[in-house]
Amino acid sequence: MNKGFTLLLAAVCAAMVLSACGGEEKTPPTVPPPPSHGGQSEGSAGGGAATVDGLIDLGAALFSGRTADLQCQMTEAGLLLWDDRGAVLYDCAQKTVLGRSAEAIRPLGGGLFYAVERRGEGDYLVTLYDRHFKALAQHQSDRPAIPASDGRLLLYDQREIAVLDTETGEVSEFRVQDVAPDYPGGIWTHVFDGEWVFFAATCNPNPVGTPGIGAYNVLTGQALFDSGYSGRFTGPMAPTALMPSCWTLPPGPLRSWTWGQKPLA
Amino acid sequence: MSPNARRLAALSTGEDAEAQRILLTGIAVYEADTLEQRFAFVPEQPPEPDDPPYFNSLSISDDGRFVAFSGALREGEQRRQTVFLYEVPAAP
């Protein structure tokens, strides 16, 4: 079941991507303007609350005029800022721009970054980048991707979950129907703790029908499913659209979690 | 919450029961051991159910020196997406 993925290794693809996006762009040091946000900020430096003049409006300085949601995350390489039209890597201490890209590059962990380009229905191109925004590899996928907590990528849709090892290119896949043939609604939601993918499946996606809940070990291939799950379900739209509680589970080993009254481990 | 060994960065939240959603209303940084507040940011605009200010992301550096957060703030009739970066003062 690896047909959905094609691993195209570094050199050729890197050159192609760099050519397409203009490659790494070094920019001179940026001195952002003072904040004009109309908000209140206070800091304490031992002398009580005071107006903070160290608040830097990076959005105005680096993403002026953008209207899409801006995101930010500290990474090993610097502060990454991104929206759906580009990304900037910023050195907080030196207050300089380290890299800029027209791709919506996102943090992956371990000094890696990634971007997902949706090229059509069921056609996604996942590109991995290093800390200099240089493309390392590309993966063609029929599914979107989200980062796992350990630097791997989770590729998923309603039917399958795959975990892509970004170092080796190996893909570990799991099909819901293998353990839950009576749940054609597929995966409703999932969470990954680095070893286990927990998921909830439904017999009917809209409206969400009888839920079942399962887990898939990406290291061993072990899969579990409990169609009789009767534990707590919660969510902002309950009860008409149930959000399984696995979404709210904190990360941790499987043995710390029980399904209903039935321990899994 | 985005923690590191020395400091915690936290979002304050308010619940909009009618709309059944969570409003993210402010940012704060605390010393992890004493819980002394080192930084706080609260938008001036009061949350409005139909058009609340909100934050998308929050992150603190591994050494606790920098905190960054993004959000949508109102400027008149417009919304402006931005990312703020703040250097947290050293503990006295």
List keywords for this structure.
heterodimer, A: about 260 residues, mainly beta, 2 domains, five-stranded antiparallel sheet, 3 helices, 22 strands, about 10% helix, about 40% strand, elongated, disordered N terminus, disordered C terminus, B: about 90 residues, four-stranded antiparallel sheet, three-stranded antiparallel sheet, 7 strands
In short:
The complex is a heterodimer of chains A (265) and B (92). Chain A has 265 residues and is mostly beta strands. Chain A is 8% helix and 42% strand.
Description:
The complex is a heterodimer of chains A (265) and B (92). Chain A has 265 residues and is mainly β. Helices cover 8% and strands 42% of the residues of chain A. Chain A has 2 domains: 118 residues, no CATH class; 101 residues, no CATH class. The two termini of chain A are 28 Å apart. By secondary structure, chain B is an all-beta fold. Chain B is built from no helices and 7 strands. In chain B, the strands form 2 sheets. Chain B has a 4-stranded antiparallel β-sheet with strand order 1-2-3-4, with no helix packed on it. A 3-stranded antiparallel β-sheet of chain B has the order 5-6-7, with no helix packed on it. Chains A and B meet through strand 2, strand 4, helix 2, strand 5 and strand 6 of A and strand 4, strand 5, strand 6 and strand 7 of B.
Secondary-structure element series of chain B: EEEEEEE
Strand content of chain A: 35-45%
Strands of the largest sheet of chain B, in order across it? Answer: 1-2-3-4
**Class from helix and strand fractions of chain A:** mainly beta
The radius of gyration of chain B is 14 Å
Which geometry of chain A do the CA atoms define?
elongated
How far do the termini of chain A sit from each other? 28 Å
Largest interface, C-beta closer than 8 angstroms, per-chain residues: A-B, 38 and 41 residues
Give the rounded overall mean pLDDT of chain A.
65
